[in-house]
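Saturday, quiet lab. Running sequence design on the structure tokens for the scaffold JK sent over.
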């Protein structure tokens, strides 16, 4: 397992179906080591702290294996352009760790910090806006390709190319199971 890309971004205006809103979903790959504090990555920001950020959702990770799926469905929806790491709004583009392999409470040990898996990402209208087509949220719900949030267990730093070791937690609830349960209960689904 490896950290393929480390991504940060600021709060910017985002054009959505609900109008222009502030959002921190746009992330760009960074070079070099980035500091990791209790509240996330240095230089990163979130606009809506009720659903993103804070100690329990300090960092968002997404499996790089899902990028081919999103590129294909964007093409079918006639959305142009290649997806770069960070396009899902993730801070960590991880290779080799899928939602069905991760349990809430698992720890991800990097060479200079340690993170704890806390929750799946629940998509909203902002995700549809950055993907470029309205069905993106329902496709995330159907596919289960949600990624997961992380709390900071040990502060330090991260850089693209860092290795990742999965340290099992209590093994009571997998990320994909929790995501599907939440999405079944979500209004309008």
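Result came back. Writing it out in full:
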């Amino acid at each position: 397992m490896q950290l393929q890309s480390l991504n940060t971004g600021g709060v910017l205006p985002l054009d959505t179906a609900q109008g222009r809103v502030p959002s921190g979903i746009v992330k760009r790959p960074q070079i070099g080591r980035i500091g990791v504090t209790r509240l996330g990555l240095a230089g990163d920001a979130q606009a809506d702290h009720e659903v993103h950020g804070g100690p329990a959702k300090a960092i968002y990770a997404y499996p790089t294996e899902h990028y081919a799926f999103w590129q294909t469905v964007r093409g079918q929806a006639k959305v142009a352009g290649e997806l770069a790491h960070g396009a899902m709004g993730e801070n960590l583009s991880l290779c080799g760790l899928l939602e069905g392999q991760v349990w809430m409470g698992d720890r991800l040990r990097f060479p200079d910090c340690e993170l704890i898996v806390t929750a799946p990402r629940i998509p909203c209208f902002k995700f549809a806006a950055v993907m470029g087509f309205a069905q993106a949220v329902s496709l995330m719900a159907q596919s289960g390709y949600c990624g997961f949030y992380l709390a900071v267990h040990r502060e330090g730093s991260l850089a693209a190319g860092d290795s990742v070791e999965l340290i099992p937690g209590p093994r009571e609830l997998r990320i994909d199971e929790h995501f599907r349960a939440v999405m079944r209960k979500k209004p309008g689904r």
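Notes for JK: DSSP finds four helices and 13 strands in the chain. The CA atoms of residues 101 and 174 lie 7 Å apart. Ask whether to fix the surface positions before the next round.
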